[in-house]
Amino acid sequence: TEFKENIKMLHWVIYGATGYFAYLWLSLKSCKSLSDNSFYKLVLLFFLFTALIALTTPPTRSQDMYWNLSYGKLYSHYGLNPYVATLEQIPDEPLLINVFDRWESVPMIYGPLFAIFIGMITFVSSSLIVTFILLKFFYAALLAIILLLVWDILGYHVKSLIQKRNIIAVLTLNPVVLQHLLIDVHNDIFVALSIVAGYWFFLKKKYIHSMLVLGIGGFFKYIPWMLVVIPLWYYVMESTNKKRSLRNVFGIFLLLV
Fold it and tell me: What is the pLDDT of residues 88-100, one digit of tens each?
């Protein structure tokens, strides 16, 4: 069934995900007697099971993957600038069957690094199945990195190991995360990675690294740029040499530009 028909099932997906999440939270609250190893194995088992289903499921409530891959092919196969040309110029592209007509006239709206990334994915193969697998497994790897960073970040904020493991379990098995990132393949995963990595460096007082990560993330999707001011402020305020710190900030700005 094509995506345009599946979109009608969106409300059932939401109801099912909400029920599953409520059951998950209640189950975790009753798992206090489980040893850490048993708990982690149980969470990992459920995550692998649900992630495998998610990775093999085509997008059910978003056209973004098809729209992004179409623009990747516009760039890598047709040699057109995705910020100038639109999908209307490649009407015979098979991927467009799953793209809403009103979006075919909209040029690339994301940052240049994402345009290059998606162009590299489609450059490897023009097959929907191959690009589908590449994109999904790459996103799964990024999600794993995010979860590892969040686990380390929780060490700065949460004293109780039980509370820490419950939080990471809720995030790992969150149906909204699995749906949004591994099924519908939204590029918000680059935003999440940039912000989480930026905060991870921020907690370690590596403000320059934090600014760089947020700055690079903005070239995928612009949201992280709004947060650069936070490590920038702390870097300047905590510096013993304000002039040198301002020169470094200016250098970072020039590097990103």
Answer: 998 888 888 888 7
